[in-house]
């Protein structure tokens, strides 16, 4: 099992949360404020660094370093939703270089495999060359549930985009099957998938699944900031309730605008956390055992 997968599953149990918040906002300071607001309720915080104005590239005091510090304080992993999809040489530069230096602060990234399996190999080489250190996390500082020191693994992890929630996308069953095959080939780096359902089918599979397009029904919303489940937005994103996604067997639900556009993002994140966790506790255990 990938070390970050093990860490994340432990974090899910500890925080009683299956929630990832997607920072669908365009200002770096507002992104950091959102991370602080939702930090207690989440296990993953998803960013889009290339849409943020005001990004400070300083490796010690800049935006990435500040986000990493917030993640340590509130115990969550940072997932940069970069969707790498180029040749190996280019994705290495995109991952480890430029203004953002993603590898320095993002525990998890993701990639399409449209360019073939070498995109995964290239990203793994860049991650292995990064050379971060394990960090001791004092759980007692972040959560009022007793003190317990964990080690945040130094390894970086990758999710493959095996399925998408956008209408008319081209990720068909053959493509998904190829994604799974590539993940098995590089399981020491690939943690799992962005997908609509679990894709583990062999005894040794232990891949996690994170699923976007998550929205509460209007009658449950605190402020009507969501899109209606069963519908899609003006650009084809399709929505499903957190309960349905968790009952399908998904490990983590990803919520963006329903929390980012809320009048109180902290309260909204806690509502999503509670709904998703209740669904997890209600769902039957998978045949292979408790996936979390």
Automatic annotation (TrEMBL):
Coiled-coil stretches: none
CDD domains membership: OMP_decarboxylase_like
UniProt keyword annotations, A-Z: Decarboxylase, Lyase, Pyrimidine biosynthesis
Domain (Orotidine 5'-phosphate decarboxylase): residue spans on this chain: 18-272
Alphabetical list of SMART domains matching this protein: OMPdecase (SM00934)
Entry binding sites for substrate: 24, 46, 165, 237, 256-257
GO biological process terms, semicolon-separated: 'de novo' pyrimidine nucleobase biosynthetic process; 'de novo' UMP biosynthetic process
CC annotations in GO: cytosol
Active site: 81 (for ompdecase activity), 83 (for ompdecase activity), 86 (for ompdecase activity)
Gene3D superfamilies cross-referenced by the UniProt entry: Aldolase class I
Pathway: Pyrimidine metabolism; UMP biosynthesis via de novo pathway; UMP from orotate: step 2/2
GO MF terms held by the record: orotidine-5'-phosphate decarboxylase activity
Catalysed reaction, written as an equation: orotidine 5'-phosphate + H(+) = UMP + CO2
Enzyme Commission code: 4.1.1.23
Family the UniProt entry places it in: Belongs to the OMP decarboxylase family.
Database matches in NCBIfam families: pyrF (TIGR01740)
Identification of the protein by name: Orotidine 5'-phosphate decarboxylase
Source organism (scientific name): Cudoniella acicularis
């Amino acid at each position: 099992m990938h070390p970050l997968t093990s860490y994340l599953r432990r974090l899910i149990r500890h925080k009683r949360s299956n929630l990832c918040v997607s920072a669908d906002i365009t200002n770096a300071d507002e992104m950091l404020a959102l991370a602080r607001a939702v930090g207690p309720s989440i296990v993953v915080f998803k960013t889009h660094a290339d849409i943020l104005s005001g990004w400070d590239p300083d490796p010690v005091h800049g935006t990435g370093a500040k986000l990493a510090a917030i993640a340590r304080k509130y115990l969550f992993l940072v997932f940069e939703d970069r969707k790498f999809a180029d040749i190996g040489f280019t994705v290495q530069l995109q991952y480890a270089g430029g203004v953002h230096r993603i590898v320095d602060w993002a525990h998890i990234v993701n990639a399409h495999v449209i360019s073939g399996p070498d995109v995964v190999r290239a990203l793994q080489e860049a991650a292995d060359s990064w050379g971060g250190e394990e960090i001791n996390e004092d759980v007692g500082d972040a959560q009022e549930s007793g003190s317990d020191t964990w080690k945040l693994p130094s390894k970086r992890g990758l999710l493959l985009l095996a399925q998408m929630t956008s209408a008319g996308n081209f990720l068909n069953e053959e493509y998904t099957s190829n994604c799974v095959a590539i993940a098995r080939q590089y399981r020491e780096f690939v943690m799992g998938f962005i997908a609509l359902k679990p894709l583990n089918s062999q005894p040794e599979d232990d891949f996690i699944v994170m699923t976007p397009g998550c929205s509460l029904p209007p009658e449950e919303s605190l402020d009507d900031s969501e899109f209606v489940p069963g519908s899609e937005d003006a650009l084809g994103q399709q929505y499903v309730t957190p309960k349905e996604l968790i009952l399908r067997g998904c490990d983590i639900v990803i919520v963006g605008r329903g929390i980012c556009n809320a009048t109180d993002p902290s309260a909204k994140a806690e509502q999503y956390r509670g709904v998703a966790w209740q669904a997890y506790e209600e769902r039957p255990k998978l045949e292979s055992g408790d996936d979390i």
